[in-house]
Amino acid sequence: MEQARRILKEVPLIDGHNDLPWQYRKRVQNHLDRIDLARSTAALPKPMHTDLPRLRAGLVGGQFWSVYIPVELGGPGAVRATLEQIDVVHRLIAKYPDDLELALTADDIVRIHRAGKVASLIGMEGGHSIDNSLAALRQLYRAGARYMTITHWTNLDWADAATAPPEHDGLTPFGREVIREMNRLGMLVDISHVSAATMHAVLDVTAAPVIFSHSSAFGLTHHPRNVPDDILKRLRKNKGIVMVTFVGAYTTEEVRLFSADLDGEKARLEALFPADSARVQLETESWLRKHPQPRVTVADVADHIDYIKRVAGIDYIGIGSDFDGISITPLGLEDVSAHPNLIAELLRRGYTEKEVKKVAGLNLLRVFRRTEKVASRLQRTTAPSDALIEDLDGRLEAN
Q: Whose C-alpha in 131, 135, 203, 296 is 20 to 30 A from the C-alpha of 284?
């Protein structure tokens, strides 16, 4: 542990996904004064995973704050809600300037980490955030967004998700234009949440490395949100990164199957009591008492890092916790203060300091710098795209 802490003072631990902004929206309608990050949020009636004391204890050097909005918020309302969540991140940084600082580039992350603060980056979770508009994409980048997850749980008009029936065999022509425009901007292309066909389609068109901001290995846990072996092998050529997540259903088969059973039970109860949500909640809690959720551990998370190292290589691995986006965390990775436990686990398994530094943050910095270099080249030769989805995909938008 002492070695792990020393390493994280030398290189920034960069977490690819934390849903703290959504907690502000869900709990207090974005009133920042109602949740004090300077105090422990573990003591709240509904405990959270993130606060400033625990970020410092966890030696977090860089954090992508997810500006998630539900897929049900489609159309222009999605753009507004995304801007509101980006505003939350900017206001949090302004409220806690001794602890947080906005990072827009790879060099910013390094500089802010050296200054003893958390480099705060913004990631959009789902292409529904841009409402089929490349102009909206560009303005959200100007507002600070530095990655966009191509889909969330459902398909878009231009891309297929991992957890919905396929419609587009990956990307439509407009979807491919979105990827090209992200490359031109210097926005990281995040292919967590997309289908395997979409993963391949993105890798076929992108000029920059991709990221998986919070996914794990399908070869260990057969959840559609995880990364198949053939994609892991393609990462060697693309030079992208899988930021291994702490989500239980993506980490062990035991929890994945439990989650499927729980979803089936909820569906059964909702069919039995369609007008009685309180009864559904009561019966679900009764089922959970009889069927407690299995827990994953820090060792299970490290197993995915081992697996990706074997299939793709050490250069293509990072960390993407999904703290404050999950209800149950792994044993040993209970909140943001516990990140050093994962680094220590890798050291115990024989990882060298050089390898551990890559996983902690150097791999992400390499991907970010390469993305910036691609953008610099493209901006010298390529104008902003004025393509419309109606033009490229041959149909009118529903809205």
A: 296
Do 207 and 288 fall into the same domain? no
pLDDT tens digit string along 24-59?
999 999 999 999 999 999 999 999 999 999 999 999
Number of H helices, E strands in the chain: 16, 9
Tokens 């260990």 — which residue?
220
Tracing tokens 């220590």 back to the chain, one arrives at 344
| Structure token digits, residue 353 | 């300091």
pLDDT for the residue numbered 180: 98
- From the number of C-beta atoms within 10 Å of its C-beta (0-12, 13-18, 19+), residue 313 rates as middle
Element (H, E) at 242: strand 241-244
CA atoms within 13 A on the CB side of 156: 34
d(CA 168, CA 97): 45
Per the confidence metrics, is the pTM higher than 0.85? yes
Q: Which residues are catalytic?
A: 17, 19, 125, 152, 193, 214, 322
Q: Are residues 172 and 230 both part of a single domain?
A: yes
Give a yes or no: residue 279 inside a domain.
yes
For the chain, the domain total comes to: 2
Q: Which domain holds residue 277?
A: 253-293
Q: What's the CA gap between 258 and 252, in Å, rounded?
A: 10
Span 68-127, pLDDT tens digits = 999 998 889 999 999 999 999 999 999 999 999 999 999 999 999 999 999 999 999 999
pLDDT of 397: 46
User: CA 267 to CA 263: how far, in whole Å?
Assistant: 6
User: Do 284 and 143 sit in the same domain of this protein?
Assistant: no
